[in-house]
Structures are given as C-alpha cells and as structure tokens.
Amino acid sequence: MIPLKDNIPSRRFPIVNILLIIINFIVFFYELSLGDGVQRLIFQYGIVPTRIVKGVIGFNPSHISSLITPFFSSIFLHGGWYHILSNMLYLWIFGDNVEDRMGHFNYLIFYLLCGFTSSVAHILTNMSSSIPTIGASGAISGVLGAYFVIFPEARVMTLLPFGFFLQIAAIPAFLFLGFWFISQALNGIATLAVNTYMTEGIAWWAHIGGFVTGIIIGRRYKRRYKPYYGW
After folding, report:
1. CA 40/CA 159 separation, integer angstroms
2. Contact 181, 111 (CB under 8 A)
3. Which pLDDT value is given to residue 65?
4. How does the average pLDDT of the chain come out, rounded?
5. Is residue 198 over pLDDT 80?
C-alpha cells in the first residue's frame, strides 16, 4: 500500500517537518558525493549494536559523545533512493498533522525522542549485531504511532496494487496504520528466530519501538480538540 495524501488540512505551516525532510535530503546528497567513502560514514555515524553495548558495559565518560551521537546522526542517513523516498513520503503525509497538533518545538523533540527509542529497541533485540543501522524509519514510525491515536478517523488516499492493476481507495487511518504496525510486528517477531544477516537489513524492532513511543506520547494530544476532516 502506498499512501498518497490524507484528508486533514494543517492549521499551521509545518516548518519543522519540512526542515526535517530538507535536512534528510541534504545529508543524502552528501552521502552520494562520498562515493565508496560513504561506508566509513555509515559505520561511524550509524547504530552498530555491538559497539553501543560494549560502550555501555565499559563506560568511559570521555567516550560519551561517540556513544550518544549515533542515536541521532543515524536517523538522518539513508541507504539508497528507495529508502529515503519512501521514508520522506510517509513523513510528508503524516508529519504535518502531528506537528500541527503538538506544536513546532514539541514535535521536534518528539521526533528525535522516537528516533532514540527506536534505536534502543533495535539494539536490545540485536545486541550481537555488528551491522550498522541507518534511516529515519524509527523516528517516522513514532510519527505514525502518534497519528494513529490522534487522527484515527482520518482517511488516507492509498494506492493499492492488484496484480497488474492499480486501485486508489480512501482507507481509514486506524486501518492503514494498524495494518502497517501488524506487518512490522510479525516481521519483528520472525527475526528473533534468525540471524541478523537474514533479515534483509530492515530494523523491524526499530519500527515497533518508534511506533509504540508515538502511541504513548500521542495519547496526551488525543482529545483536546476535534480535528476538521476534509473531502
């Protein structure tokens, strides 16, 4: 399922959401400029579970910067065009309304916090992995979780593939995002029984951790006003 747009107009200009999208693309173009050197960047600023675990066990105050930085730098790195375009599409569609509801500053803190907790969830379920994890998926999953509880009655215009045919349908947000989360959860549970290199490099538990964080925080903003639904 590919989301195209929702039916909730924003009351305020989503400056933070747009800036996050711009920053992600700037960083991605920088990655492209590095050529083969991008691997070094990813290993340095991505989340490598074994490195984080060893850093926590043998904690050294002088290394705290290198221990904390990947939790935030990793959410601005992407592994290819499909990776960044799919992430930014979801952020563009769902992020503006969550920012509108939370306010600009709170939304920024919320986004970064979801990125942090999603990385923690990934580390806890892949403690022996030496594969770097990058991408805004975890933070964006938090945005989806918040949207799920704040705007459950919204409609998401969705492109549905049926074999060689495409159909566009307006799907309730709670169904669209509920199905998305269930698929992540099932994949996440399945990965617990296999080695990391067999999971196609997707951090399913980061998505789960981010989404749950979004639900928990999003509940605070759930019933303060009744949103206007377009269409």
Report:
1. 37
2. no
3. 85
4. 89
5. no
Which residue in this structure is represented by tokens 């986004």? 111
- Give the Å distances, CA to CA, from 22 to 113, 146, 154, 156: 19, 22, 26, 24
Report yes or no: 94 and 144 within 8 Å, Cβ to Cβ.
yes
Question: What pLDDT was estimated at residue 194?
Answer: 60
The listed range with the strongest mean pLDDT (51-65, 179-193, 203-217) is: 203-217
Q: How many CA atoms lie within 13 A of 190 on its CB side?
A: 12
* Listed residue (98, 204, 86) closest to 149, CA to CA: 98
Pairwise CA distance, residues 13 & 136, whole Å = 22
Q: Spell out the residues 6+ positions from residue 199 whose beta carbon is closer than 8 angstroms to its own.
A: 191
Query: Higher pLDDT residue, 56 or 106?
Result: 106
Q: Name residue 62's amino acid.
A: S
Could you tell me which residues come within 8 angstroms of residue 206 by beta carbon, excluding any fewer than 6 positions away?
118, 119, 121, 122, 133, 137, 138, 141
**Residue 60 · residue 52 · CB < 8 Å:** no
Tokens of 42: 């990813």
Q: What is the pLDDT of residues 153-196, one digit of tens each?
A: 999 999 988 777 888 999 999 999 999 999 999 888 887 766 54
- Taken in order of first residue, the domains within the chain and their CATH numbers are 2-221 (1.20.1540.10)
Q: 3-class DSSP state for residue 167?
A: strand
Instruction: Please list the residues that pair with 166 across neighbouring strands.
Output: 161
Q: In 3-state terms, what secondary structure has residue 201?
A: coil
Q: How far is CA 128 from CA 85, 132, 201, in A?
A: 30, 12, 14
